[in-house]
Design a protein that fits this description.
With 333 residues, this protein is of the alpha/beta class. It has 12 helices and 14 strands. Strands 6-5-1-9-10-11-12-13-14 form a 9-stranded mixed sheet, sandwiched between helices. A 5-stranded mixed sheet has the order 3-8-7-2-4. It comes from Xanthobacter agilis.
Length: 333
């Protein structure tokens, strides 16, 4: 097996995040469920965008955020995701490349507009998301770059993109290419509602070892095994998965295999500003250590550091140098 040309290649929804601060009454006026994520059409996206205050536009999407985090921690990252050849598509491509991520997926010349996620952040740090998926959902196996997949130590798949049949086929094709090259495949379950829609299919991916490494939070894990008891769900996960990472917010995180559970505490923060991207950056930190061959506890601590840092700022792209922070903490050299 040849040496990897990328440490982590992520595949997911290519979305431009538009973040703005808002009071609770703005959410109520537009019928939003605080703290939730609603899928909206292009017309509602335009209406909400017009009602938002001054905001920040930056390339986003769960897997793209993870790729940017991996790059910020000094590892080699790539991303595959679909945009349209429009204004926001240009923003997406510029931002993700500027973050040090290899990105070359061709933009669609026609069809739905580039996806955007309108994120309203209330004074308590909670984020309410309104997502128009647009062109991101049009990813197909033809958009894959087989050489990138073959060269990536880990190909990381975003559960949010399991909805469109063509994207699902692209995921399975990428997993086959990766395994054919002797590489590993990871999956993030993304959201408990996503798990509810595709529980049987996600379990099949894990049990057949189409996926080698699973990322999930406590709510997603409980949804996967349809239980309210965390320990019961964890026992089931250890039976099914080769490797898994489970995050539990302030309770810390664990790396689990059939033979062991390794846990670390959360990194304390003085003030939570915005929880957008916490899980994405945790995965980035873990994978930045994992692809360096570090032990599970250290990988978890890098993940916790990255997640703890990202929730102290607005947005899911780190504003401070994560590599320097990890070095200062003695986690990376």
């Amino acid at each position: 097996m040849s040496a990897p040309t990328l440490d982590v290649l992520t595949i997911g929804n290519a979305i431009v995040d538009v973040l703005a601060r808002a009071e609770d009454d703005v959410l109520a006026a537009h019928g939003m469920n605080k703290g939730g994520m609603a899928l909206i059409d292009e017309a509602r996206a335009e209406a909400i965008y017009g009602a938002m205050g001054p905001g920040t536009e930056i390339s986003g999407g769960s897997a793209a955020n993870t790729a940017a985090g991996v790059a910020a921690l000094g590892a080699r990252a790539g991303f595959i995701g679909k945009v349209k050849a429009d204004g926001l598509g240009t923003v997406f491509g510029h931002d993700i490349r500027a973050a040090g991520v290899a990105y070359a997926t061709p933009a669609a010349p026609a069809g739905a507009a580039t996806a955007r996620c309108l994120i309203l952040v209330t004074p308590d740090g909670e984020r309410t998301m309104n997502t128009f998926l647009g062109a991101a959902q049009d990813l197909t196996a033809a958009d894959l770059d087989p050489a990138m997949v073959q060269g990536a130590a880990v190909t990381y798949l975003e559960g949010y993109l399991w909805d469109p049949p063509a994207a699902k086929e692209a995921f399975l094709a990428a997993a086959k290419i990766a395994h054919g090259a002797g590489r590993k495949v990871a999956l993030t379950l993304s959201d408990s509602f996503c798990v509810d829609r595709y529980r049987a299919e996600f379990l099949d991916l894990v049990r057949t070892h189409t996926v080698d490494l699973v990322f999930c939070n406590e709510a997603e894990l409980k949804a996967l095994y349809e239980t309210a008891d965390f320990d019961t769900a964890l026992v089931a996960l250890r039976k099914d998965a080769r490797e898994a990472v489970v995050t539990r917010s302030e309770k810390g995180a664990s790396f689990v295999t059939s033979g062991a559970v390794v846990s670390v505490p959360a990194v304390p923060v003085e003030r939570v500003v915005d929880t957008t991207g916490a899980g994405d950056l945790f995965a980035a930190g873990f994978l930045a250590g994992y692809t360096r061959g570090l032990d599970p506890a250290t990988c978890l601590r890098i993940g916790a550091l990255a997640a703890g840092e990202i929730i102290t700022q607005l947005g899911a792209r780190p504003q401070r140098n994560l590599l320097d922070l990890a070095r200062e903490a003695g986690l990376l050299s």
